[in-house]
Input
Amino acid sequence: MKPENKRMKDFLKDNGITAKATWISTGSLKGNWRLYNPEQKWTPELQKQLTQLGFVGFDNKPLTWVSGNGGMFSVFVKGHENLAPR
Output
């Protein structure tokens, strides 16, 4: 696991969220995180929790109900770039 992904995974875990994390360093989503957990649903509570941690959608807009991929916890977000590659 890349160090930046481990840092984000640990940060999320420390804040009560179980998820895999991937830093995207190239392409149209460059500078975003992909956060996902195929075993968890996208809920208003999870949306609120990520928002309170300072995340916004890939488009710099607030996270919404449709941010979760078909109701599953799979989102592309901006925030906490300090955990990205150094």
